[in-house]
């Protein structure tokens, strides 16, 4: 199955005072860590889903992705600051040290929180919900491991669950 590796999250959260939506993953995958930014696996549908929902072109570079998120009022981070994991397998995660989400919630106290996948939602419930006091909505994972959900179905479900989450006149999901 592979060896456990201790991973320290290496990315800063992406957010600003205009962020209205926070999308939390569990921990960046091996491919994302290699790419140096969130959702860096070429088959992850995260960027395609958000592009479809906002009507914007799919961003390619890290700078385009950061600008895309901030322009749409979307914050991105992960529930985990450190853990032991085998490869990119969420099922293998153990010895979790949660991220300090107050970095975002102090600036954006009324942010709508969404989890990209069941593991992120479960870990948020275990480590974060009581601290933030904010409810979370679980979205189906955009990971290529979630092969049962095609891009069209993912986009429709994300759109259905995120309707109205942005309310400041920016691109609407």
UniProtKB/TrEMBL annotation:
Gene3D superfamilies: Uracil-DNA glycosylase-like domain
UniProt xrefs under Pfam families: UDG
Ranges annotated as spanning the membrane: none
Domain Uracil-DNA glycosylase-like: 12-162
Protein known as: Uracil-DNA glycosylase-like domain-containing protein
Domain of life (superkingdom): Bacteria
């Amino acid at each position: 199955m592979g060896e456990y590796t201790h991973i320290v999250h290496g990315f800063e959260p992406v957010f600003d005072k205009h962020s209205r939506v926070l999308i939390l993953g569990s921990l960046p995958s091996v491919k994302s860590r290699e790419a140096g930014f969130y959702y860096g696996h070429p088959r992850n549908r995260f960027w395609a889903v958000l592009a479809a929902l906002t009507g914007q072109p799919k961003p390619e570079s890290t700078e385009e992705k950061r600008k895309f998120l901030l322009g749409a009022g979307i914050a991105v981070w992960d529930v985990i600051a450190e853990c032991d994991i085998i490869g990119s397998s969420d099922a293998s995660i153990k010895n979790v040290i949660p991220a300090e989400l107050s970095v975002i919630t102090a600036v954006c106290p009324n942010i709508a929180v969404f989890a990209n996948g069941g593991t992120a939602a479960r870990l948020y419930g275990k480590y974060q919900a009581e601290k933030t006091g904010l409810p979370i909505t679980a979205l189906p994972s955009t990971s290529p491991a979630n092969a049962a959900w095609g891009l069209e179905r993912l986009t429709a479900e994300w759109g259905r669950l995120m309707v109205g989450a942005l309310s400041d006149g920016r691109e609407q999901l």
